[in-house]
Amino acid sequence: MAATARIEEDLSQNRFLQVLRASFEGIYRQAAKGGEKTVVLVPCADCLEVEHFAQNFAETHLLHATCVPGCYMNLLGQGVEIKDSSVSTRLGFPEQRVCEVLQSESMYDVGNTFRVLVIDKPLIGRHRPLPGAADRAKATAETSELSVDDMLLQAPMIQGDFFDEVDRFRKTFVQVAGCEGRTAERIREIVNGAVQRLGRHHKLTSSSQLRQLEFTVSRQAYTALHSFVFPHLQQILSTHEERLQKAIRSYGSVEDVVEAIPGGGQGLAFVDISEAAKELELMDGKIAPHEKVECIDKAHSSLQRCIADCLQESPIPAAPIEITGDDVLSLPFA
Known about the structure:
By secondary structure, this protein is α+β, with helices and mostly antiparallel strands.
């Protein structure tokens, strides 16, 4: 399978992660408690030759951040460097190995949020090479010095064509209420065309780099089209906005809001949501929807941490508190 067509790993089905949680629960939980300083390296399913793993194999792939940016130490005391879309073995490893990051996820478990990186091969031991792995490694080395954010700038002809097409879209496309999906589809077509050309121009084969490039180009497209798309969305959603504001004003205080939430009286009022609310307040200053979603994602992660902190500080065991989208959306009004 080509790297560009690779399907994202289903972490719940990854054999290594399953064994790590089941057979080495103690060290997994201890690592997870490190929160944002913890990185769990998960060899992708296609590269694994076995279904059972020794403890030293598990400990090798559980990392903790050091004081040096990008440098980590695993539970065996060996050094690992994470740079851009690659993971490299360093001090203490018998073999120098460079792994490609195929996928990056944020995982919440054991009351903490930490990073999970899916890599194309394990740091130690035998493995099955992925098809095209050598080509991906070569391409990654060639483009490692070039930031994804700079790739459009480094291809002026493609950049010019891209913004010309965006401008043509702004001048000729007619937005119709109820057909916003078609608007998004057309913008996606423009973005995909530019990404494909940039991928060929920079000889990209890494799926992670292509995803980052698509995100960057899409963000630039929506930023350029903000004054065209956003007023239309404000207009068609104005009725819903008024209903929401009216519903918010119907509550006299934060306590009233908490009382209205099912199960809200079970300690939710004691959760400090100020940090999450600050993240959501930043949304007004963001232009692209990508940046607004990042604010929501950070607020959600912050809310999870606050819930966990509240439960740890509570002297009385509390019932589990569920966090839903409604909880996140209500933060700006608290």
